[in-house]
Queue: 3 jobs
Job 1
Amino acid sequence: MEALIIGCGFAGATVARKLAEQDIKVRMIERRNHIGGNCYDCNDEHGILIHQYGPHIFHTYSKEVYDFLSQYTKWYDYSHEVVGNVYNKIIPIPFNLNTLNIVFGEEKGNALKKELVDTYGMEARVPILELQKSDSEGIREVAEYVYQNIFLKYTMKQWEQKPEEVDQSVTARVPVLISYDNRYFQDTYQGMPEAGYTVLFENLLNHENIKIELGVDAKDVLTFDFENQKILVDGKEFNGPIVFTGAIDELFDCKLGQLPYRSLDFKFEHYDQEFYQSKGVVNYTVSEDYTRITEFKYLTGQVSDTTTIIKEYPKKYTDPKTQVPYYAILNDKNKQLHQKYVDLVKPFNNFYLLGRLAQYKYYNIDGIVLEALKFIGELL
Ligand code: UDP
């Protein structure tokens, strides 16, 4: 049997590897000129390892995902920390018990701490929109501070919508943390691929049954014969599994409508100094046009006298030719439009949609690897 996989990100690469190990010949096509999807990393002109498509930090609660990826990389033991720049005051993000005294002073901070711990319990993760609904005046005051200083302007920049207008799962990614833990993620396993993501992908895809073609667009390879419910590959009927991980609307020239996304402009800057900022990521939650600055050396552990940072400027996604669709905009209308594309391809029973773009979801790395492993379990 032969399989065709479209897209060389975590979804496609995980499936490719698993199929290849079952002695299935896997042909992968990728529109870009590199593997790794948006996790692709490379050295910049100054020799600093950068993430071309914005910072990607691995974290998971899943032993299955961790064990699977650990076959292809060692890990640099990195626990991600983020701080917010709030009118030049630096506070840990997510907002946690350490932040209370910085913001409210010691006496009031301690009283609020007690109330939060009594109400939610230590180590609880409370979404900001839930905290706002508290009956307690003190807790509502904390919620108001967090809303105004951490969520409102950042979310407006990122989504051009208020926190209460975006899907609740989005803001709940960054809860208020009833804890003294300053880490951004509390997952059991976290770290960065020791030699980078691209090397991880090289190892993952290094199998005699996997053949990769870069710079090849799915639209030039696939033909959908709706009448006979058959898919042609390079003009010939293809009956093996076809796993598509790209943007499903664009595959059909957006004939049912264009799926909305948020995109980003990245500005890389290099400095002749050892470090630029105090942590891997600084969120600009009340000021600036960019949402955050990431300094790669913290994430990768690279040692160098100089450093490279990246600033992220959110923007509308309007042009598939020049922009990258980074974030699905989750709401009922968009999910319904996506469902129409799912229904459109349903008659083709060897065609599968997998991944952040194809499934129109907000996946983390571990989320999509787990989904891909589950998919393979069902397919095989
Ligand atoms: N968010 C915010 N302020 C912050 C961090 C996050 O308002 O300082 C909100 C914002 O709406 C963002 C969402 O929480 O889009 C999820 O943040 P996360 O850091 O998970 O975003 P990602 O790293 O996936 O871009």
Job 2
Amino acid sequence: MASDQSSPHIVLFPFMSKGHTIPILHLARLLLLRRISLTIFTTTANSPFIRQSLADTDSSLFHVVDLSFPQDVPQVPPGVESTDRLSSMSLFVPFANATKLMQPQFEQVLQSLPRVSCIISDGFLGWTLQSASRFGIPRLVFFGMNNFSSTVSRVVVRDGLLANVGSDDDPFTVPAFPWLKLTRNDFEYPFRDPKPGDPHFEFVVEQIVAMSKSQGTVVNSFYELEPGYLEYWNREFEPKVWCVGPLCLAEPPTVQSLQNQKPTWMQWLDQKSAEGRSVLYVAFGSQVGISTEQLREITIGLERSEVSFLWVVKSKEVKFLEDGYDYEERVKERGLIVKEWVNQREILDHQSVNGFMSHCGWNSVLESLCASVPILAWPMMAEQHLNARFVVEEMGMGLRVVANNGSVRGFVESEMIEKMVKELMEGEEGKKAREKVKELEKLARMAMEKGGSSWRTLDRLLDETCMQEKVI
Ligand code: UDP
């Protein structure tokens, strides 16, 4: 790694889950473009993904450090170093807490590095603030949520708005944003039911405290998308938020390989395109676990909708689809089920893909926006319910499935799936969402261009936070 004492040198430390690592690697690209040298911390099992993702960049400018992931941690299965490999997200907190055991290794390496201008570490790695302070280095938080979800959550907690709501589905208004109608079901534990002493609650509080003591927050969003929520946060809360996205636009489009070297699903999409068919892309991210009963409804809904679809499933779901159920055979003329890791951006960018049934993980939403693909929102966990509201009610780039009982959370029947898939792909509401997402895509691209809002924000952030000698 080329580095001298005067040129900026930034440490990046992504959290060990795909949805957190991918955008920070996109941020790495933006920093490398500015000739900033980087040291990227990860763990041994995550290292190949990181090295591969940056294989086309200038390797003289960055260095990847592989720390050993703690072994013999209660509840964390041996060899699992990424949340997408956990058998259940109920193991998330023990997993995330295990990362704290890497602090001595992290500090040992930190000590040996050339002068570090700042550390940008994930919001779930709050303990890195302590290391940064020990070495007198500013820490910025890399935060995976948009401003809508983080500002609304913070306001709702600050103003105690969940306390007086009758049932989980009773709508309430947020005085700071009077046009919003939310329900308790839009929020995940521990926001909706704080239990001091509970490990999940304590973990979240620790991260929030570490964040509030950090020098700033780097957010994967752009000013034009949510100016009101961003300004509200920066007026009312700390630390300051810097919007530098959508970061996925920092990655160059995939170079088209020869037809027979493309993954089979990309060949299949080409075929659908040649047949003049629109395809619905169905994927629920890298972590969500879907019950067998719910999977069954999805299969029926997709089959009855008669649209063409490409559905990426996870290993647990594969078993259901293969268990004496001739589904793949029945839908083979217009449905393809993919059982491996795909390049999601490449799929969304394909000309035949015209709709995305998505869990509304924030990266998926931004990737869809940047590909001008409207969303059928089906949130499952974390802040995805708020993201879904943002996608449908504020951005206007999607429709939404609703549970049987009219709730934003719960079991969704095949009739609802069929109806909403048809509406997204063929109906008037889908058409409106498609028009809206095209406008948003243009704004997003402008924000990321040289001189655009995100570009300038990153320059200012680097200038104010990382390029100065600071005494903390
Ligand atoms: N992803 C991918 N291929 C897959 C599954 C996921 O490229 O087969 C990527 C996806 O493009 C996105 C990230 O993994 O960048 C998932 O992040 P998101 O916030 O959408 O959801 P999460 O997995 O964190 O729930």
Job 3
Amino acid sequence: MDTKPYVGRFAPSPSGPLHLGSLVAALGSYLQARSHNGQWLVRIEDIDPPREQPGASSLILRQLEQFSLYWDQTVCYQSQRLDSYQQFIDQCLQDHKAYFCQCSRKQIKADGGYYLGHCRHKQPKQGDLATRLMTDQPIYQFQDGLYGKVSITQALAEEDFIIQRRDGLYAYNLAVSLDDYQQGITEVVRGADLIFTTGRQLSIFKLLKQPAPRYLHLPLVYDAQGHKLSKQNHAPSISGKQAQQLLLHALGFLGQTVETGWIELSCEQILTEAVINWQLKTIPKTALR
Ligand code: GLU
Ligand code: ZN
């Protein structure tokens, strides 16, 4: 049994306001943390400026407060952690655990969509170069807290993935793992759209020689056309007035008990009830794709 005190987190990207899908991730990670008497941290993943919407970070935080989803500690901003990311990359390069790559997207597409290690031993030094991690101990499967054993395809597992893009931006898998480590996260609870990135994050923990958190992926909310709700396809944002209704809706989506009388309660009271009644076994598992 793991005896470390539970630390969970919600890690939105500020590409737009919260929508039902991100509310489900926030709520699920919150309830899982609180039902373990754990801490629940919020981290703003603002390392991709072209995809950010001005004001979205503070809007998301205000929305969380409207739902009474109050976090512990101060909010972590990835944009303030760039030195740590660079330090890790420099160390990997020095240890020959990472290398520069000049392959174009077109070349990789022609190779079947996966990067096949073309630059592993070429060590290009000139031009616009991405940095890739040498995946010499691929992760082919892991145990998910909801989905059970998850297998990762060989091609995906073995790919030397990018940790710094050619435009200099740090890659999601790098930043998220270093932050989960630095913040002492014991369990990552998030949407199942990220389930297959877990192997890459586990690889980074291996390199750090640190125990990885547990991972639990929540079902995704799809719109009427079967598309995943995302900030990119302009899912409707949440207005504070409907906070109670939306919270109950998100709870129902997660397969949790919702009593009719709860609509009269405040968000804070709904959350108190929801923590008491929280159970993983009734969460529906949507097909992974
Ligand atoms: N920032 C990511 C997103 O908003 C989530 C990262 C994570 O939970 O690992 O999709
Ligand atoms: Zn290359």
